[in-house]
Design a protein that fits this description.
Blueprint lengths: L1 H9 L54 E2 L4 E4 L2 E7 L3 E7 L6 E4 L1 E8 L2 E9 L6 E7 L2 E5 L7 E12 L2 E10 L8 E3 L1 H4 L4 E2 L10
Parallel strand pairs: 2-13, 4-12, 5-11
Antiparallel strand pairs: 1-2, 3-4, 3-10, 5-12, 6-7, 7-8, 9-10, 10-11
């Protein structure tokens, strides 16, 4: 019995530990060569640059002369120098008026050594001051107006300069206070001297 117990005690079954098996490391694959395509070469055959067509917005310059005599073209309103007063004033250019006229104040007739003169004053457009003048009387004219008594006016001779045109013409002394322009240039200055384009103004240099 004791022997049987010893045999049974010596034969105690013990589960064996599992054997650890190390797997071999995988063999490294050789590095693959990466192929890169070269950049394509770009060849410029022709370079085209588009330039926008300029748009012309300005009008062509207006003609400055006309007619067979190539007379200067002036506008309906121009700057005129008046001598001997030495004044510069805007003038209405009127081909319908036979004689040039200017606004005058304090007009009176005087006689000196048997000759008749006219003393008068012309307002300076810049300062409104009256510029006194005395010129030889050329003649007298009778102006008939509607619903008014005929008015006698004196005519003197003055130098007028308009652009490159300078002429000594008869000028009627009148009351132009109700008119926009103190000076009116008539045909006695314009004939064979200029052509008037009423659509223009101040065409001549000041």
């Amino acid at each position: 019995m004791f022997l049987v117990l010893m045999l049974l005690g010596g034969c105690t079954t013990v589960a064996p530990e599992p054997e650890v098996v190390n797997c071999p490391e995988p063999k490294a694959c050789p590095a693959c060569e990466v192929l890169q395509c070269p950049d394509p070469e770009v060849q410029i055959v022709e370079k085209i640059v588009q330039v926008p067509t300029p748009v012309i917005t300005t009008e062509p310059p207006s003609a400055t002369t006309a007619g067979d005599m190539h007379l200067p073209i002036i506008g309906a309103v121009e700057w005129v120098d008046v001598e001997p007063a030495g004044l510069r004033m805007q003038a209405r250019i009127d081909t319908g008026a036979e004689t040039t006229s200017i606004h005058a104040e304090q007009v009176r007739l005087v006689e000196k050594e048997g000759k008749r003169y006219v003393r008068f004053s012309v307002p300076d457009p810049q300062s409104d001051e009256l510029v006194p003048m005395e010129l030889r009387l050329r003649r007298q004219v009778l102006i008939k107006q509607h619903s008014r008594e005929p008015e006698r006016r004196f005519v003197v001779r003055m130098w007028l300069t308009l652009g490159d045109m300078r002429s000594r013409v008869d000028v009627t002394l009148s009351d132009r206070q109700d008119f926009e322009f103190p000076l009116l240039v008539g045909r006695n200055f314009l004939v064979d001297a200029a052509i008037v384009d009423v659509s223009r103004r101040h065409t001549q240099a000041m």
